[in-house]
Specification:
The chain is mainly α.
Length: 226
């Protein structure tokens, strides 16, 4: 189906400055997670994509959930977006979320919104960990499994960000060294020095990586795959 869509939108596929076309993107285990980048000149070019979906439904019995579909225009005339919305019935938006990344109309807004959204979504977990009487190793496990991985998609898309790295690392240290009780936060003993947190257990550390180490590791994994 993706090969057919790529052929159908060949004349309006978005191209990079070096002339390379951006092919349709799909998430491996979810039929509904598609992303198409086009330089459409009229609404019928978008309708061509939906015709492929309808043909796919007839031959496979699987249906694309068009009610989950949105269209976002970047440097697009408002009248063209209005025409596309009227003919396709698809909602036109100024932002949407795709695979853990907030898509906006420019790069910096995408990056900032993605970090902010992930951070805001974790506030309840931050509060729960801080309010529960847990030993240091239990906190370490929760941070490694439920807090830091929430930023992996963002690090892979945008790399490391100094400002957000400092914010996240500071929150992690706060979770390790403080306890919230009755709405007030109190300082606990610092059983592991800040500079030794990523050291091994044998060296008296917690074997925890800071955000920069995580982001750099994801980048290296990507380079190895390439």
């Amino acid at each position: 189906m993706l090969r057919v869509i790529q052929k159908v939108i060949e004349n309006c596929t978005f191209r990079l400055r070096n002339g390379i076309r951006i092919p349709p993107t799909a998430y491996a285990d979810d039929l509904d997670d598609h992303l198409h980048l086009t330089r459409a000149q009229n609404a019928m070019q978008i309708m061509d994509i939906f015709r492929v979906y309808n043909d796919f439904k007839r031959v496979s019995g699987l249906k694309i959930a068009l009610n989950k579909t949105v269209i976002m225009g970047i440097n697009t005339p408002p009248q063209l977006l209005q025409e596309i919305a009227e003919i396709t019935g698809i909602q036109v938006v100024e932002s949407f979320r795709y695979l853990g990344v907030e898509i906006r109309q420019n790069y910096l807004e995408c990056k900032e919104a993605s970090f902010q959204k992930a951070y805001d979504n974790l506030e309840r977990k931050f509060d729960k960990i801080s309010s529960t009487y847990l030993d240091l190793m239990h906190k370490r496990q929760l941070i490694n499994m439920a807090i830091l991985p929430a930023f992996n998609h963002i690090f892979m898309a945008f790399g490391f960000d100094d400002r957000w790295g400092e914010i996240i690392d500071k929150k992690v240290l706060n979770l390790l060294w403080t306890q919230k009780s009755g709405g007030a936060r109190r300082q606990k003993r610092r059983l592991v020095a800040k500079k030794r947190i990523n050291a091994s257990f044998e060296m008296g550390g917690l074997r925890m990586n800071c955000t920069k180490q995580i982001a750099d590791g994801l980048l290296l994994n990507t380079l190895k795959r390439v």
